[in-house]
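MYOF protein
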Amino acid sequence: ATLHLSQISSAGAELEEGTPGFLPCFGPSFLPFYGPRTDPARTPSTDTGVAYRGRVLLELSTHMGTPDGRQRDAIAPEDIARVQRLLPLRRFGLCGVFYSATMVPAGPELLRFELSLGNYGDTGDVTCKPAASVTPHGCPVFDGTRYPSLPWYGDKPVAAVTSSWEDASHRWDALNLLRAMCRRLVSTHG
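Predicted structure tokens:
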């Protein structure tokens, strides 16, 4: 079964059958922010890469009527710190084995790869504990026929990151339940 948003949402008026739907909404969901990676050894014109900068918990909802002109105040830092301590955390891990690195840019610069989960694993971020999240530096070698690659040969580098985030499994459980229900509906009525 397919549920069309235009058939179940309300555009401010009741639907054809007289049953009101719902107004558009988003979230609550985390919205991540990314920005340029800063390296003190380089000039701003040669910065490359993107780094995680933070996230905001965002929820948008639509209400009927005219705005009342009220403004929302910012959340006090002590309130944020108090809530962060009470959030249930879940530990996540990311492990990557690099089998090959081909078609890399040629040149005398040393290259390495980095895994990160948010700020965790980002070698430029000092707010998180260091992790084995980067491969060793290597200089690209031209194979003589096609393109430069990193000479890892038999030694395949491994990078790993562990991090702790808010436990949002209640959202995943609902999504997984809906997907399972959708698959069952398709298989029985398809």
